[in-house]
Amino acid sequence: MTFSWTPEVHDFYGDPEAILGKMDGFDMELPSRRIFVLLTESAEGADVRFFEQSDGGYTVSTWSGSKLDGLGGRIADTILSNKGVHCVGEQTRAVLAPLGMTSQGTVPAPANPRAAFAHTVRAHGKETFVRATCALLC
Fold it and tell me: Is a pLDDT exceeding 70 seen at residue 2?
């Protein structure tokens, strides 16, 4: 319940290595979170990675497209309207459902943000300007 009452959303801008360097400075407590999401967007496209704790690891669901169309704002609105009452991760899953996300399987609990997010952030290209949004939910 503590995390549903105190979710966090962080936006990082820059090229992939600059973003990962910034993330290295944050203790996002990923192994303690039941659900967290990464949104990335650049001129080359957009990605969503939804992580949900299951069986000692995290089930990862993904979506890729041309742009996020305000998805970050819709997640922020969901967090605010939830007011910490319900599991904000489950509420966010409902916001993401229309994307038709695909399950990619289960991965071990990530030790830090770089372990969880580096592949997705770097996929936008070496010298590409990217926005990465980490929503740390419940």
Answer: no
Measure the CA–CA gap between 68 and 93, rounded to whole angstroms: 15
Nearest to 67, CA basis, from 23, 24, 131: 131
Q: pLDDT at residue 24 above 80?
A: yes
Q: 3-state SS string over the chain? A: CHHHHCCEEEEEEECHHHHHHHHHCCCCCHHHCCEEEEEEEECCEEEEEEEEEECCEEEEEEEEECCCCCHHHHHHHHHHHHCCCCCHHHHHHHHHHHHCCEEEEEEECCCCHHHHHHHHHHCCCCCCCEEEEEEECC
Residues in the chain: 138
The tens digit of pLDDT for each residue in 89-122 reads 999 999 999 999 999 999 999 999 999 999 999 9
Give the model's pLDDT for residue 86.
Answer: 82
